Fold each of these.
Amino acid sequence: MLKRMHKYKDFAGLHIPDHVFEDIYATSSDPYGYTHRDYERQKRSTTLAALSRDPYMNAFEIGCSIGVLTGLLGERCDSLLSVDIVKRALQQARQRCAAAPNVVSSFQRSLKALREFSETLINKLADEGNF
């Protein structure tokens, strides 16, 4: 994964073009290891532990990727809108959360249509300094 990302080092600290992420997901269905890396499991556990156990009326997840965390967040939300800019990743997120009618995964490039949410999660984006 790191070797594949190295070719994008020129974008460090700048807006990263969409094609960069499309290229990453074109090479793997889980390029970041969300489903199998211990680090990702720990991060999900820590994220969920930091959230209130009370259900959220409506939540917004930015950068949902393949929907691993999305499915777990959906269990705590009356309504969850999860967005990403990579259509291939969104297809997986939709499949993963298909049994949860309260979860909507959507392709969005802009946050202009952002409505009021009781909770907004930017977990991975903030972790990498992209937000």
Note: Strands lie at 56-62, 77-84, 103-107, 119-121.
Amino acid sequence: MGIAGRIARAFLQSKLTPLITVASLAVGAIGIVATPREEEPQISVPMIDVMTAMPGAGPEEVENVVTRAVERRMWEIPGVDHVYSSSGEGWSLVTVRFRVGEDQERSVTNHRRYLVDVDHHRVRLAAGKSDSNAEDEREGRVGENEAAKLHI
């Protein structure tokens, strides 16, 4: 008989086995009763979607010009847990997931601040626009022929 058989025989023949079983069940019952629970726990996992449009550009161009720049900037935000992205014909979507419990308002504020650099410099320069165009857009003077538009 192997070691498992000897252990089983010892437990079957011991008078302590019922006591150990009852004690284990009692500890389990106490654990179930003492554990706090809610029907709908309030777990906050802030997530933000950044949609960009770059009409006429293929998926690879959108990924290289816009999506990667947005991803790099989003990783710089404090509290970011993960960044997901997808690029298609003339569009991209970047989803930023923050750590559980991060303040939603602060996350959105940081997110908008970090996107300013991407929107006004990297994307514009990649499309052949100058820094003066970024200043014009802040003042609302840029026309409909923008290289990319960010939607938060």
Note: Residues 121-152 have pLDDT under 50 and may be disordered.
Amino acid sequence: MRGMRGGGAAVSKSSLVGAILAPAILKAQAKEHIVKVNPYLSFNGTCEAAFKFYEQVFGGKIQVMMTFEGSPMADHAPANWRGKIMHARLDIGDQTLMGSDPPPDRYQPIKGITVSLSIDKPEDADRVFQALSEKGSVQMPIQKTFWALRFGMLTDQFGVPWMINCEASDQ
């Protein structure tokens, strides 16, 4: 195919068409992601305290903190549980963390899952790890590893397992 001349460099017709279509192709590919993953955590009566704590640690904003009381679900919760959280939502940037206090007969401790946090700066990873591990238990202290500037594992005071990961930059 003959090159087209522009600015002293030869540009093929297919390159030019590709450059023109690239933004439209990228936009179409972005629409293919129809799912957003939001962890939904279950607590045994401590959801409100946990979400207020996470709001401080992560710098997010609680958007929803709804109790059983006054909702259509009030009659399905024990009387002493109606002040507990039926649904909570914490927005952290463009990420969302959700949770609730299911009625005691439906609560099960978290097993087989860990919430993984990817943090850009080592000092932020250290700060978040320290805050989450307060009154919790550390399975692996935060440290440099062969894949990360910082990595650590803990279970917080509310029984939620976390992994903190600050990967080494490719630069």
Note: The chain has a mean pLDDT of 87.
